[in-house]
């Protein structure tokens, strides 16, 4: 009996990792890091294909979840011609939006510049609906100002609080904002 227990203990010890808190790196984890931008890809269908019923996209979210989206097509196709998938580039126009005493420059490349000399004291994200909140240190007196925008930024709200003012950017979806201090103010890159 002692030999069996000893054998089990030795096999468990030999099988254990040196540090169990270090994550195991797998090929699956390496795919999370690679971010090559889709430009164009094509698929040649088999010779017996006549009607394209649907297309299913499998994609990874910001949280790492893998989800599917199926689009119903239901159209006749010519199997001799490949089916192309490409991502259309959007013309880069910058919108200049004046809200209260602030100026916002909204780029179609999902970047926003908040032109302000005031110091940002905090920022955070809220969901349902998704919005990014920025608090700036300043003693100002003004009424809450709201402006709807036709962009990936759907609405801007600037509100007064005791000792600071708050800027809220409502977006059209879920993003991971990266904030950088620049000479003109704060540049937010919505990833």
Q: How does this structure look, described?
A:
The protein is built from two helices and 14 strands. The chain folds into two domains: 51 residues, no CATH class; 97 residues, Immunoglobulin-like. A hairpin with a 2-residue loop joins β5 and β6. The chain has a five-stranded antiparallel β-sheet with strand order 5-6-7-14-13, with no helix packed on it. The chain has a five-stranded antiparallel β-sheet with strand order 8-9-12-11-10, with no helix packed on it. The chain starts with a helix and ends with a strand. With 191 residues, it is mainly beta.
Structural class: mainly beta
Number of strands: 14
Distance between the termini: 60 Å
Tell me the number of structural domains.
2
* Count of individual helical segments: 2
List the main descriptive attributes of the protein structure presented here.
Immunoglobulin-like; 14 strands; 49% strand; 5-stranded antiparallel sheet; mainly beta; 191 residues; 2 domains
Q: Helices and strands in order, then pairings?
A:
Elements: H1 2-15, H2 27-33, E1 40-43, E2 51-60, E3 66-76, E4 83-86, E5 94-99, E6 102-107, E7 111-115, E8 119-126, E9 131-137, E10 145-148, E11 153-161, E12 164-171, E13 177-182, E14 185-190
Antiparallel strand pairs: 1-4, 2-3, 5-6, 6-7, 7-14, 8-9, 9-12, 10-11, 11-12, 13-14
